[in-house]
Design a protein that fits this description.
- By secondary structure, the protein is α/β, with parallel strands linked by helices.
- The protein is built from 18 helices and 12 strands.
- Helix 4 packs across helix 12 and helix 14 packs parallel to helix 18.
- The longest helix has 20 residues.
Length: 431
């Protein structure tokens, strides 16, 4: 046995170094800020070409493994994992747009995304036009300007379950050689893969269904890998022109994957959106059971929605799985394996009935989150949509008695029993 004669502090820092390689079936967690270089030329080569790993902010084996996993689930060419869903939206948009550019977005989007457009991107000189009717193809087309750089919408909109006709709006975007960016958080790639229907970029809040357990934050951008510098180069000069110092353009170096390469090289790491490898690991673990969870959550949601629709205390239910929803036929065309697990319903008793509901449930959890294995409830009018005007809330289907549910994997009988207990006083009050 060789005796280590170095000092105690030195042994504490270095004794675990250079352990033998092992083949782990689970994705290993590389919880390290940086990576050791083999020699002088290895370091120079990494900084010259970007190959391999040097620093976790710019790349990490755990993160990279999960990126491959999520790209495969979305039928994408490549993906970039970031620190949150909000970071995914920011990174995707700053990948395609800059000062003086313009974006067209559906009105029916997450409030954090809307605030980003109106408050933050506007300060950077990026203007947004909103389309009120997500299904009006002509309105989308009419909103496009010569400086428009992307269309943005959600596959299933929060909170009224409006469904995006991905193929139709994707064709509008393609006719102007700009990408359709789809936030697919609510649908998940288990139900629909927008890239297969004409979208160019997909974003997710991986904190929701992909991770699935409400324990971590993360986001992901997935690209179709079909950027065409000849058709779209005039809309993306930063991808087709040489870089500083005469460096070859992103398109010359990465071809059809130029957009996602630019996001990885120049946007996510420079804006500091890199995720923790531990969070990446947990997102990857969650994604392994995504299909199982979403299938059960969707089945539970349909049963709960049908029960609510038949209850005297309920004025309306906006769940696309119900035949009464205006987008039901569109959802049937795009969604396979279920209709999702997030929807709103409106109580007849207004805000007081809503207050009673959120303060009385016991199986449902009152919190601001979605896509959890647990069933959740929130009152949009006083939380997520509080800064909208009454007219805007009306357009989005949010009234004083509206509640949003995110259905989990519990036994559906227990969910309905919880609802029945809470809604009985409401039924009596409106009878």
């Amino acid at each position: 046995m060789t005796v280590d004669t170095t000092g105690f502090a030195t042994r504490a820092v270095h004794a675990a170094r250079n352990q033998g390689a092992a083949s782990s079936r689970a994705t290993p967690i590389y919880l390290t800020a940086g990576f050791e270089f083999d020699d002088f030329d290895h370091a120079a080569g990494h900084f010259g070409t970007g190959a391999g790993f040097g620093y976790t902010r710019t790349g990490n084996p755990t993160v990279h493994a999960v990126e491959r996993q999520l790209a495969a689930l979305e039928s994408g060419a490549d993906a970039v994992l970031v620190a949150s869903g909000q970071a995914a939206v920011v990174t995707a948009l700053l990948t395609v747009a800059g000062a003086g550019d313009h974006i067209v977005s559906s009105t029916h989007i997450y409030e954090g995304s809307r605030g980003l457009f109106l408050d933050n991107l506007a300060r950077l000189g990026i203007e947004t036009t909103f389309v009120d009717d997500i299904g009006d193809v002509d309105a989308w087309r009419a909103a496009i300007r010569p400086n428009t750089r992307a269309l943005f919408a959600e596959s299933i909109a929060n909170a009224r379950n409006d469904i995006l006709d991905i193929a139709a709006i994707g064709a509008v975007a393609d006719s102007s050689a700009i990408p359709l960016i789809v936030d697919n958080t609510l649908a998940t790639p288990f139900l629909v893969r927008p890239l297969e229907h004409g979208a160019a970029i997909v974003v997710h809040s991986a904190s929701k269904f992909l991770a699935g357990h409400g324990s971590v934050l993360g986001g992901v951008i997935v690209d179709d890998g079909r950027f065409d510098p000849i058709r779209a180069g005039h809309n993306a000069p930063h991808l087709v022109l040489p870089g500083r110092g005469g460096v070859a353009s992103v398109a010359a170096r990465h071809g059809g994957r130029a957009r996602i390469a630019y996001a990885r090289e120049s946007v996510a790491p420079r804006f500091g959106a890199s995720p923790s490898p531990l969070n990446a690991f947990l997102i990857g673990q969650g994604a392994e059971t995504l299909g199982l969870r979403v299938e059960r959550q969707s089945r539970n949601a349909l049963a709960v929605a049908r029960w609510l629709a038949a209850h005297d205390a309920v004025e309306s239910v906006d769940y696309v799985g119900l035949e009464t929803h205006p987008d039901h036929s569109l959802a049937t065309r795009y969604l396979h394996g279920g209709y999702g697990s997030i929807f709103t319903f409106t109580l007849r008793g207004g805000i007081e009935a809503a207050r009673h509901f959120v303060e009385s449930v016991s199986v449902f959890t009152h919190m601001t989150h979605i896509g959890d294995v647990r069933s959740l409830v929130l009152h949009p009018g006083t939380t997520s949509h509080a800064h909208r005007t009454d007219e805007e809330r009306d357009i989005l289907g949010v009234s004083p008695g509206t509640l949003r549910l995110s259905i989990g994997i519990e036994d559906v009988a227990d969910l309905i029993a919880d609802l029945a207990r809470v809604l009985e006083p409401v039924r009596e009050a409106v009878a």
